[in-house]
Amino acid sequence: MGSVIFFSSCVWGIRYWDDYREKPLNNILESFSYPTVIYISSATTNTQTIHDSENINELLEFLSQYQVQKLKDGPGLTGPIFRYSWENEKGWRGPVVAMLWINEHYMLIGTDYYKVLNGPIDLEWLKEFNARTNR
C-alpha cells in the first residue's frame, strides 16, 4: 500500500513539474491537433478565417519562437489582445480546439495563463499578419 502511494506521489510530482517548467510554446500548441482552419478575432474587426496551409504554418512558425511558463494564477490580459482559435477536420470536439489570447507578455491558452519569457511578443508582426491574411 505504501509503495502505491509513493509511486502516485512521484507521478503527480513529475507531472506538476512538467506543467510549470519553462518550455517552447510549440510544445503546448502541439497538444492540440494541427489546425486546418484558424479564426482571428478582435474587438475592432470582424472574425476572419484562414484556410490556407501556408498562412497557418507561418503563424505557427512565428509563435514557436517563444518560450513560456505556465502560471498558477492568471494576471488577466490588458492592452492590445490578439485572439486566435482553430479547429481541424474533426470540428470543435476534443483536443482539436485551441483558443489563444495573446498580449505582449502573457497568453491565455484554453484556461491556462502563460508568461512569455523571451518576449515581448512582436504584436506588430501579428497585426501585419492579420491584415495580410484578411481577404
Query: Under CATH, the topology is which?
Result: Immunoglobulin-like
For the record, the CATH class is Mainly Beta
What structural category arises from helix and sheet content? alpha+beta
Strand tally is: 8
* C-alpha geometry: globular
Low-confidence stretches: none
Topology (elements, then pairings):
Blueprint: H1 2-20, E1 23-24, H2 25-29, E2 37-41, E3 48-50, H3 53-63, E4 67-70, E5 82-87, E6 98-102, E7 106-109, E8 112-116, H4 123-133
Antiparallel strand pairs: 1-4, 2-3, 2-5, 4-8, 5-6, 6-7, 7-8
How would you characterize the overall build of this protein?
- It is globular, with a radius of gyration of 17 Å.
- The mean pLDDT is 80.
- A hairpin with a 6-residue loop joins strand 2 (37-41) and strand 3.
- The chain has 135 residues and is α+β, with helices and mostly antiparallel strands.
- The protein has one domain: Immunoglobulin-like.
- The chain has helices at residues 2-20, 25-29, 53-63, 123-133, and strands at 23-24, 37-41, 48-50, 67-70, 82-87, 98-102, 106-109, 112-116.
- Strands 1-4-8-7-6-5-2-3 form an eight-stranded antiparallel sheet.
- It is 34% helix and 25% strand.
- It contains four helices and eight strands, in the order H-E-H-E-E-H-E-E-E-E-E-H.
Sum up the structure in keywords:
135 residues; alpha+beta; Immunoglobulin-like; 8-stranded antiparallel sheet; 8 strands
Give a nutshell description of this structure.
The protein has 135 residues and is an alpha+beta fold. 34% of the residues lie in helices and 25% in strands. The protein has helices at residues 2-20, 25-29, 53-63, 123-133; strands spanning 23-24, 37-41, 48-50, 67-70, 82-87, 98-102, 106-109, 112-116.
